[in-house]
Amino acid sequence: MGARSFFDRAAHWLLTGAPWWLLAFVLLYTAGGAFLGWRAAYEVLVGLTAPGQTQHSAFAYVLSLSGWLLVPAIIGGAAGYFLGRQIDARRPLSEEQVRERVANPEPPATPEPDRDRGLRIRSLAELEAEGGEGRRFVEKYVAGPHTRNREVAEEHWSATVQFVADNWARLEGLTPVEAAVEAERLARAAAFNAAQMDRCFVCDQNHRA
Prior knowledge:
It holds the Pfam family DUF6313. Residues 95-117 are annotated as: Disordered. Keywords: Membrane, Transmembrane, Transmembrane helix. The chain crosses the membrane at residues 20-38, 58-83. Helix content is 71%, strand content 0%. By secondary structure, it is mostly helical. The protein folds into 2 domains: 2-91, no CATH class; 124-208, no CATH class. Helix 6 (132-143) packs across helix 8 (176-195).
């Protein structure tokens, strides 16, 4: 309530007080242009030229002071007001809405087919973005067997998914998107089984070879 009343007061000031201050500033700058020249008035206003370096130093000090105080005040006040309005517009979720979102989370994004190979292999970062389960899988079953060597883990994970996609007959007849989802699911199972021996799937295949 207090925040809203503050915004209402700020809006009232912007509509009633700010125009008068802005008008005073315009008149002052116009007078500065007449006394000092437009270029000199601008340079004094923005602080590029010291007021004492002008012909009418007393007036220049007034113009310089108004530039230091009035311009940031008007711009900052307007920006703060509109930013506050945006924040205020984001109302908190009710307890019922929170429970509904927890009970019905959004499904994970479906991998899109890669135009070159027909298979979209999700990166480790994308797996981790799923949340706790995705991060635990990457940490324990993909990065773990490589002593946290992220580059090798990324390469071997992609190779695992591609190997499954190329060699599992059950993927035949599926669309590229369906094949990507199924290949990732089977690759996760392969990574889990290989991790029981502290290896990844690719490392285990190389060891057997």
